[in-house]
Amino acid sequence: MRQREFEKRHESGWRELEAALRTDGGTVADLPGRYRQLCQQFAMASERHYTSDLQERLNRLVMAAHQRIYRRRPLRRSAWVDYLLGGFPRAVRSQARAVYLSTALFLLPALVLGIGCYLNDSLVYTLMEPEQVSLFESMYDPANRVTGRERGSDSDLYMFGFYIKNNIGIAFRTFAAGIIFGVGAVFILVFNGVYIGATAGHLTRLGFGGTFYPFVIGHGAFELTAIALAGAAGLCLGQSLIDPGGYPRLVALRKAASRAMQIMYGTFLMLVLAAFLEAFWSSSQSLPVGLKLATGAALWILVLAYLAFAGRGGQHRAT
Amino acid sequence: MLDTRYTIETPEGIDLQAQVAGPVPRVLAYAVDLFYRTVITIALWLGLNLAGMDTAGWGIWLLGSFLLEWFYPVVFELWRHGQTPGKQAFGLMVVNANLTPVSWSASLLRNLLRVADFLPLAYATGLTTMTLSRQFQRLGDMAADTIVVYRQPQADRKALPQLAPCVPPRNLEAEDQRAIISLTERHREISEARQEELAELLQPVTDASGPAGLRYLRAIGLWLLGAR
Fold this sequence. Notes:
The complex is a heterodimer of chains A (319) and B (228).
Chain A (H helix, E strand, L loop, with lengths): L2 H20 L8 H17 L4 H18 L7 H18 L1 H24 L10 H11 L14 H23 L5 H24 L2 H34 L6 H34 L6 H21 L10
Chain B lengths: L4 E5 L5 E5 L3 H28 L4 H25 L5 H5 L2 E5 L7 H9 L1 H5 L5 H9 L6 H6 L1 E5 L23 H12 L6 H9 L2 H4 L3 H16 L3
Antiparallel strand pairs in B: 1-2, 3-4
């Protein structure tokens, strides 16, 4: 068949498809069927070496239909619920080694520096500027009325914004930096562990524990766990590049990345929750210390139990 | 082959083609997006100031700048056909490597990993990997299995020369026919003098030289395309 005849035969169909696919709203009856016909016409046009003009036009049209046919499914609510009830903790448990490693990288420096700063008054000054030290000393000084940062009545929202931007930013960076063979994630985890440990040790030494721990315990359950989880997700990326385990590195990276993202969604939610608690609950002055400590302890147990046990036995459900 | 053409075989068994976009248009598109983001951040700041910015206002501003920093590209990639305003300006779009619309997790992942691509400064890592990789992928693209391609606009059809078609000689091989058709099709793209020069090569076959030879070839081309 000559090209001109071929074009004449199918032109009206192509026009219709082009018009329907130009806008999002445009629809055409039986798109899958039309798409298959179009694919066949495109294959014929290339097989018969019709002009590049026609081939490009058909390629464009096939591409538009392809994008329409294979468009994203909208997120189903059940998918989210399944993820929260079981998918997230399962994803965390499936990367248990990375999670333990990340936790250790965070916790051990914190413990060492915490004990060190508790025993030695000058150690904290090897890490931080004196102004920085006196700033957080004043923040948690029981003699001060306001714990946390100095704040007026409407500053809860400000602190919420601050914690969201700062803490979630840290978690995202920890994850992303993990792709550099894990080195970036290790660095950020250790760095944060050192600072948090030193701060806690120094404040305990000064006898400010009575204001510091009730403040941090509640949101810490979500925030510290989430940082460790983000680190674990980052370590997964790094590990896939160091030890791709029988795959090409690129393929290993892709597989690890999709597993790591399963951890990151939940981590993000935990950090939003942590920022909310930190801004509106932890800083509250009217709540008794005992209640804060008890709630904080309950939250820790809740979070750890959730990660350890939720979604067990539910693997058979479609995810 | 040194080419930006990217071909995949679809489940329907056809080869679908796209042109992957290199570092230069992508950097320019990024610059446009950075400009928009900066403008929005400043506008938000001004707006909150006019509304009597207090500490709570700063909180809203921090939230806004957090969302802009991390989710600005994600929102556009997911709901604007893989095109941020910057990419739209340069006719680029983000797609999955199988040329389907970019998926949720892929878009989130490729934008989270911007941090790694940025290191040590000014997207040095991303530009390096983009230059080295076959499909111009930065780290985020590699991990998320996405590519950035040109979104082809619907082009006008090329006009064919207005001539009376002419019966071709008997012994034209398929390849010769394609060459003549291609010459006919591209009569506007190549300078007239060069086309005549090309036609001159076939002088032993066409028995004509100069403009006459070219006209004859075009007439054959039209016939081969199906004109009568």
